[in-house]
Amino acid sequence: MTTDAEFEAAIAALQSWVGRERVVEDEIGLSSARRIAGMLDIDPATLKQGDALPPHWFTMFFPDIAKQSDIGPDGHPNKGVFLPPIPLPRRMGAGRRVTIDGALRIGQPATKRAIVAGIVPKFGRTGRMAVLTMRLVIETGGKTIAVDEFDAMYREAPKPGQASPQTPPVKAPDNASFADEVLLSSALVFRYSSVTWNAHRIHYDADYARDEEGYPATVQNGGLTMQLLLDAALKRASGRLAGFTARLARPLWVGDTVTLCGAAPVDGKMACWAADKDGNLCATMDLTLA
C-alpha cells in the first residue's frame, strides 16, 4: 500500500503524458451508421450514403481498437496502450464538455485527434482518485466539427467482499416538462457497447461486476445514458445543437428503467437530467441551442 505522498508523486510522474496526441481515422461507413440507428430504434434503411448524421453521433465513431493481447482483466486496453498508466484499477466516465459546429457525413472520412489534456490526483470520501481529461477534436472535410473534453475517473478497488462506495443519493428535480422512461435492457447496453467497441466487463459480466468491482449488478454505460438523454431532449428542442455539458452523478444498473427528463428551452439553453427507478438523480446535462 503506497502512501498519499507516493500516490501524488506517481501522478506527477505522468505529467509527461499531458499534451500527447494520437489520431484515429474512421470512414464513417454506412453499415456502422445503420447499426447505430437500429440500436437507437431508428429504421436503418432511412440512412443512405452521403447523408449527414445527427451532430452528436460523433461520440459513437472512432473507437480505440486494441489487439486482443493488449486487453486487460477489466476488458479495457491495458494501461499505456492508449491512455496514461494511472496507478488505480477502476475507470468510469464522469462528465464532458462539448462544442459542435457540424456533422459527420456517411461515407466521408473523418479523424479524431485524442489529446491528453490533464491528469489530476484527488482525495475524497471514497478514497484516492485521479481524473484524466481527454480533449477529442473531430475533423472532416477540412474543418473541425466538434471538440469533446471528456473526464474519466480512476478509483481504488474495493476490498474483497466490500461493496463499491456510492455517492449519497439526491432526489431528481420534480419540475420536468417532459419525462421519457427507457428500459436499460441487457440487449440495448450490449448493442451500445458493440457499436462503440467497448469491452468493459462491468457492462455485461455480472460476476465480474459483483466480485471484482463491488457493484450489485452490471453497470449501465454512462455514454449510453448521455446519448439517450440527448435524444430525448432534441425531440423537444428547436434549433441546432451547438454543444452540451454533462455530468454523471450515480450509477444505473442494467435491467432497470431510467427516466429521462428536461425543462423547456429558455433563451437557447435547455436543462435535462436522468433519474433512476427510485427517483434519484443520476445524470445532468445542459444543452446549448443555436
TrEMBL record:
InterPro entries: HotDog_dom_sf, Mitochondrial_HTD2
Alphabetized SUPFAM superfamilies for the sequence: Thioesterase/thiol ester dehydrase-isomerase (SSF54637)
Gene3D superfamilies named among the record's database cross-references: Hotdog Thioesterase
Source superkingdom: Bacteria
PANTHER family found in the cross-reference section: HYDROXYACYL-THIOESTER DEHYDRATASE TYPE 2, MITOCHONDRIAL
Name used for this protein in its record: N-terminal of MaoC-like dehydratase domain-containing protein
Native source species: Roseomonas alba
Species classification: Bacteria, Pseudomonadati, Pseudomonadota, Alphaproteobacteria, Acetobacterales
